[in-house]
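Researcher: I'd like a structural prediction for the single chain below. Treat it as a standalone chain; there are no partners to consider.
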Amino acid sequence: MTTVTASPGAGNRTVAGPGLPAGRVHIADRVLQKTAERAAADVIGVDAKNVHVEIVSARDTAAVRVTSPFPVPRLDDTEAVRRATPVLEAARAAQSELRSRLTRLFGREISRVDLTISGASAPQRKRVL
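Model: Treating it as a single chain, here is the predicted structure.
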């Protein structure tokens, strides 16, 4: 690997490798938590304000605990209920997608995603005036 030191007028910056700065990047836990909450809300299909995330970090990996309501069709819409994916199957798919997405976003391995379903979220009935 090649290490290049910037010229004196550019500050004391060392570049390691082809265009990569030496050192570490630290991202505050709160930023990771908010990012994970929004990603989980997007993957699950609920409002981010109803999603709670806890992140347990180690050096190169993290485990994520997500608590969220889960979207279900309105029970009076029999056709939507018939077409709906079973909750357990949908939750497993959401866990897998969230693990992949967070690994990509955080740039580190997500060792596990624990998903706790805290309730059901049915779509609001639209009123016609």
